[in-house]
Amino acid sequence: MKILTFFSLFSTFLSANSINVEENAGQFFSSGHTNNWAVLVCTSRFWFNYRHVANTLSVYRSVKRLGIPDSHIVLMLADDMACNHRNPKPATVFSHKNMELNVYGDDVEVDYRGYEVTVENFLRVLTGRLPPSTPRSKRLLSDDRSNILIYLTGHGGNGFLKFQDSEEISNVELADAFEQMWQKRRYNELLFIIDTCQGASMYERFYSPNLMALASSQVGEDSLSHQPDLAIGVHLMDRYTFYLLEFLEDIHPASKANMKDLFKVCPKSQCVSTPGHRTDLFLRDPGSALITDFFGSVRKVEITMETINLTDLIKEAEILYILSLHQVDPCCDKYCTFGH
C-alpha cells in the first residue's frame, strides 16, 4: 500500500514539474510584451536625399498597416520632400518609379520635422528626458513590457551617423542611450535597423540585453540607392529598405514569419553591399521571434471555459453610470446632478 502511495505521489510530482517546464519553455520562446512602439528617423535633408524620406515613410506605412497606431509611433523627418518646390507632384512621396503608391498619403503624422530632428532630441526621445511641456505625441511612452522598433536612415560612416549634415551621433552614444533605456525599464525587447553606409559599425558597441540589430552594410561598404527616377532626377529608395519593404508587403498580422526570415531579405546579389545582423544580446532564439513582435501590434486573446452572465455586467455598468452623474455638494451636503 505504501509503495502504491509513493508511486502515486511521485507521478503527481512529475506531471506538475512537466507542466512547469512547459510553462517556462513557453515563456522563454514567447516575447511576453504587451505593447509595441516604433521610432522612425530620417536624418537627411536636401532634395538629393529624397530616398531617405521615402525609406522612412515606407516603414511608417508598413507598421501602421500591421497595426501599430500613430499614438505609438514617433516619426522624425529632417526634410519635407512632399512640399519641396522641386517636387513635380506636390504633396506626394513615392517609393517606386511606377508612381503607383504615394507613401506620404493623407494621414501621415510627423512628430519631429525639419530642424527639430537633432541628435539631442533623438536621444531625449529614447531616454524619456524631455521637458514637461512636451506633448504626448512627441514622447516614447514605453515601459518594461514594450517591444520597440527603431529604424534609422541617412548618411553615415565608420561609427557615426550624420544628422542634417551638421552633427553626428556616434555608436558609443547610441549604445549608452540603449543602456539607459534598459536601466529605466523602457523596453522589453528592442529591434534596431539602420540603412546607411558602414551601418554595421553602429551596433558594434551595443551591450544592453534583449537587443537585436540589423544593418544594410558592413564596415568599409557603401549602402547603395535604388529606383532612379529621371523625372525628378533622384533615386527613390535605398536598396536595403526597398527589399525590406518588399518582404513586409507579404506579412499580415497573423503571419508566422520570424526574424531569421528578415535576415535574408536583401542578399548581396540584390543589395550589392553585405547586410549584417547581431543577435548575441538577444535572449531568445531569433527563429522564435515573429516579425509581428516588432512590426505589428499585440492582440492577445484569452480563452475561458467559464460561463459569464452579461446581463449582470450590463446592470452593474448602468448603476455605475447613474452614480457618475451625481456628486455630493460640499456646501449643502445634498446630491446634485451634473448639468442641472
TrEMBL record:
Signal sequence residues: 1-18
Catalytic machinery residues: H155, C197 (nucleophile)
Keyword check for Signal: yes
Listed pathway(s): Glycolipid biosynthesis; glycosylphosphatidylinositol-anchor biosynthesis
Entry-linked Pfam families: Peptidase_C13
Keywords for the protein's UniProt record, in alphabetical order: GPI-anchor biosynthesis, Signal
Transmembrane segments: none
A GO CC annotation given for this chain: GPI-anchor transamidase complex
GO molecular function, one term: GPI-anchor transamidase activity
UniProt GO BP: attachment of GPI anchor to protein; GPI anchor biosynthetic process; proteolysis
Family from the record: Belongs to the peptidase C13 family.
Quaternary structure and partners: Heteropentamer. Part of the GPI-anchor transamidase complex, consisting of PIGK, PIGT, PIGS, PIGU and GAA1. Interacts with GPAA1. Interacts with PIGT; this interaction, via a disulfide link, stabilizes the expression of GAA1 and PIGK and links them to PIGS.
Name of this chain's protein: GPI-anchor transamidase
Organism name: Sander lucioperca
